[in-house]
């Protein structure tokens, strides 16, 4: 098994043909609150992003991978490392399965496990962290299942359509560091 694959999913780099898919996913206003986005992205901006996605994580300080179902290579989501800090050996992590039909099937769990292994074994990171609104129990359960611990709560941190929301800060320390 390759380092960026698991039983039923594989993680791959962004490709130029992902432009329309990114455009659809990034411009879905239903997920903007989770992704901390407040406006749509143009095709031009996303094309530029794709053209620079080949940069090494040490240059760009981020890594975005497409989650695909191994069996048919269907792209179903994205998993990201962001705010990569090589001095402190840490990065933020986020996962998105765009269509609800792909959720609750173990794909996000496998993608998260795969990226955690990559981060701890290949990148030698000391820790990963994520931020999840306190009402997103499915995501909290997903990350806690993989060993993340809630280490803090930011009060009224996210302004949503229904008002202010608290956000948990979760961390996972590399047990071999």
UniProtKB/TrEMBL annotation:
The UniProt keyword set, sorted, is: Transferase
Question: Where in the numbering of this chain does the N-acetyltransferase domain appear?
Answer: 9-171
Coiled-coil region? none
Top-level division of the source organism's lineage: Bacteria
> What InterPro entries has UniProt attached to this entry?
Acyl_CoA_acyltransferase, GNAT_dom
Mention one GO molecular function.
Answer: acyltransferase activity, transferring groups other than amino-acyl groups
Alphabetized SUPFAM superfamilies for the sequence:
Acyl-CoA N-acyltransferases (Nat)
Looking up PROSITE patterns in the UniProt record yields:
GNAT
Q: What is this protein called?
A: N-acetyltransferase
- According to its UniProt entry, this protein's organism is Ancylomarina salipaludis
Q: What is the lineage of its organism?
A: Bacteria, Pseudomonadati, Bacteroidota, Bacteroidia, Marinilabiliales
